[in-house]
Design brief:
The protein is α/β, with parallel strands linked by helices. The protein folds into 2 domains: 187 residues, 3-Layer(aba) Sandwich (Rossmann fold), CATH 3.40.50; 64 residues, no CATH class. It has 8 helices and 10 strands. Helix 4 packs across helix 5 and helix 7 packs across helix 8.
Length: 262
């Protein structure tokens, strides 16, 4: 059951502060530079849940990769708690649309990849068990990816991220390939995990309702190269209902900003 409040006031905020400062980035296409970000700036407060909305190819996923330290911007910089992000770090974890589980490894062994790579597998067994319980997969620890439903596979991917105790969770359309009912369930699970752990979250989605139901702020981006068209505050308690008048009004506002007047 998802808590009614955003987070108990007594719970410490474990999330990292993230800042994109004057970030420009481009990819090479047929020998030419394809700009995806130009002088882009955005700040995310510690423990804040922010959603990114915008057209395909506008640079949303690139923002996540830059925040994860998987790429470096052409100009500008990304900061985590004031320090320049120049390499990957277990505290900043990226979860993709595809669970990308290794098919030859059990659920437990997939979740254990992070601790194993860091050389702390022997001392991380309790944390692995805890991560599996958090996503309700402890009974499926010995199962293999082909034995899982789509929702269960995505839960395993979340557990693989959470086992590292991330301070920043970067989510690239993590529920985009799930059926509608499984997607609803996973949205509730993600919200509950965020409320419990207090990490910062940056979610890329094409689903306006998903953004409004989960995030505290919704950033609407323009066509490539991305700029911020709107920064919508969603100052509503959890859990939120799709048919709540405030959500309906915010949905209409976001769609109008995106050029889809109802």
């Amino acid at each position: 059951m998802v808590a009614a409040a955003i987070r108990p006031e007594t719970q410490a905020i474990a999330g990292v502060a993230v800042e994109f400062r004057g970030v420009s980035h481009a990819y090479e296409l047929d020998g030419n530079a394809l700009p995806v970000l130009q002088e882009f700036s955005l700040s995310v407060a510690p423990g804040e849940f922010v959603a990114l909305l915008g057209p395909s190819g506008c640079g949303k996923s690139t923002l996540l990769r830059l925040a994860a330290g998987l790429e470096q911007p052409v100009r500008g910089a990304v900061f985590a708690d004031g320090s320049t992000v120049d390499r990957p770090d277990p505290e900043r974890v990226l979860v993709f649309q595809d669970p990308t589980l290794f098919p030859w490894r059990s659920v437990r062994d997939n979740v254990a990849i992070g601790p194993q790579a860091r050389g702390i597998l022997a001392t991380s067994q309790a944390r692995i068990n805890e991560a599996l319980k958090l996503v309700k997969l402890d009974a499926f620890a010995s199962a293999f990816p082909h034995q899982l439903s789509g929702g269960m596979a995505q839960r395993a991917a979340l557990a693989r991220a959470l086992v590292n105790d991330p301070r920043l969770l970067l989510l690239d359309e993590p529920f985009g390939r799930l059926d509608s009912l499984t997607r609803l369930s996973m949205q509730r699970e993600l919200l509950s995990l965020w409320q419990q752990a207090g990490y910062s979250a940056l979610l890329v989605t094409h689903d306006v309702e998903e953004a409004l139901l989960l995030a505290q702020r919704v950033i609407v981006l323009s066509e490539r190269p991305a700029r911020i068209k709107a920064d919508i505050a969603v100052d509503l308690p959890y859990p939120r209902r799709r048919d709540a008048p405030a959500i309906v009004a915010l949905r209409r506002q976001a769609l109008e900003i995106m050029g889809f007047a109802e």
